[in-house]
TrEMBL record:
InterPro entries: LSM_dom_sf, MscS_beta-dom_sf, MscS_channel_2nd. PANTHER family: INNER MEMBRANE PROTEIN, YNAI-RELATED MECHANOSENSITIVE ION CHANNEL. This is Mechanosensitive ion channel family protein. It comes from Rhizobium bangladeshense. Its main location: membrane. Residues 190-256 form the Mechanosensitive ion channel MscS domain. It is found in: Membrane. The keyword Membrane applies. The chain crosses the membrane at residues 20-43, 64-83, 89-107, 168-187. Gene3D superfamilies: 1.10.287.1260, 2.30.30.60. Keywords: Membrane, Transmembrane, Transmembrane helix. Pfam families: MS_channel_2nd. Signal peptide: none annotated.
Amino acid sequence: MTDFLNDIRAEGIWLPDWLASAVIFAVVISVTLFAHRILFRLLARLVESKDLFWRSLVSRLQRVVRLAMLVAALSLGATAAPLTDYQAATVRHVLLIFFIILIARMAKTAKHIWMTIYLRRFRLDAEDNLLARKHVTQTRIMERVIDLLIVVVAVSACLMTFDAVRQYGVSLLASAGVAGIVVGLALQPVLKNLFAGIQLAITQPIRIDDALLVEGEWGRVEEITSTYVVLQLWDWRRLVLPLSYFIEKPFQNWTRESSALIGTVMIYLDYSVPVEAIRARVEQIAKASTLWDGRVVNVAVTDFRETVMEIRILVSASNSGRTFDLRCEVREKLIDFIRREYPAALPRMRAVMNEQPAQDRRQAAE
């Protein structure tokens, strides 16, 4: 391109520098757009028989790759254009930063496509969604960690293109000392939650849609970000906790190994009630209920009190919500059965009153 301009000037045709630069950039842009169109037509044909990831990648990256090709071509054009050294260096520097941003965008897009296709294999709305919750949790935590790493690397690469910042960074690393301690203390909460997120993704004490009992509140894990966890409580409130909470403090996970749970119903009855009749009725209630999973139903006398005996009833269901509803159903139907069949077995307070003779009452009245 430079030789072409020199030949034109040698023949006596003179062009201003700005016009020559505009011509060069226009030619470079036209050639790049044509090459991009040809390239993506070939790529579209190549990935027709490939899996969904490659087809989606080519489709989603078409515009970003076009911009990246234009940036690279304009950088070459800036070298060939009749610009001053300062102008050419400034243009190439700006284009380099833009190119780094586009590369980071490509990486995030490829990551998003792969994780979206991967998560399509799992359904959180399934009855037994333990495997799905495991993979969704790992994927979403790692996705946020990867996004953070991509941003950090991209910003670092952009800053390193500035000589002053690069020298400052080198001197800061070399000096370390107090500055390093201050920076480390300032970043401690961020790094703490970042490593907690990685640890959660690997060990998985909690997963998406897990049923937890935290700080006296029951709820389900709605969202896990790179810094905090959102619990949707039973009354639709949201409880937000830092990631490090689930590494450092105890909590109850009702769906750690499976979603099935055993529900407990406690009832206090008079000693006169036949326990076998209560046991038979509880089994009838469980078998007739659509909530019972057919695994556990048990009735046992667990304690004797002064006036009543304590009866514990165990029933199981496929998840925590169904278990709660099944417990309520057992309570309602069992108390109705006892009230109808054994009303004397219901707890009551007894008192003995000594009647005063009628004569004593008359004397007291007088």
